[in-house]
């Protein structure tokens, strides 16, 4: 499903009434099936942008448009995943996944096989009847991925889903997510602080400036699919990460410190 931000801006009112301009003039167009990573300094408005695109928050300027229609309410078809997995500790992993259907007032039985299939795809088949509290952080995020995908959403919004995990688990989950999203054909918006995972997963990496967040670069990641672990060994991979690191470090400005000795 195609997704657009048109001149999107957001100003918050702080508790004391001061204006906090989080986003300014965001224009972004995402094609169906595209995976777009969003990078930017802390507090630049990445989560706010994601929330507006998903219909969880409202823009104060411009609009989010999904499938040709302005977004005015939470997108019920979308899959979402956050840094905190938000699994319900009193339900089994399988029932957490099936919550997608319960929440929509739909029967869960027809989807039980699919839930198990997804768990197997992320190496968690033995966890179906276990409770989230018995699992490690990485295992919980695997269950959360299954929950975000089980209803086959045409859109997926991921806000730093692996931010709290160790580097190796994160790399493994990146590989699994690449395979799952390539297979599902979903349009994905992925907010991250991780330059490596932005490149590894993305068809594009969008870089935002410090607040108010504006788009300062939109880099097409021309790496082959399917994205397996070998991708990280390619010289092009390193070239992309170096380029993005530079853009983030300089916030899109020329390096004024060039030639300045410490
Ligand atoms: N409800 C709110 N009320 C007031 N200000 C807010 C609110 N939500 C976010 N902000 C402010 O808007 C700015 C953007 O926040 P946002 O969480 O979108 O940034 P971010 O890029 O996702 O940050 P991080 O990378 O640290 O998660 C921040 O300055 C934040 O303090």
TrEMBL record:
Protein's organism: Actinacidiphila epipremni
Keywords: ATP-binding, Nucleotide-binding, Transport
Pfam families in UniProt: ABC_tran
Matches recorded under Gene3D superfamilies: P-loop containing nucleotide triphosphate hydrolases
GO MF term set: ATP binding
The organism's taxonomic lineage, starting at the top: Bacteria, Bacillati, Actinomycetota, Actinomycetes, Kitasatosporales
Record carries keyword Transcription: no
Record-linked CDD domains: ABC_NrtD_SsuB_transporters
Coiled coil: none
Domain named ABC transporter: residues: 3-235
Protein name: ABC transporter ATP-binding protein
Transmembrane regions: none
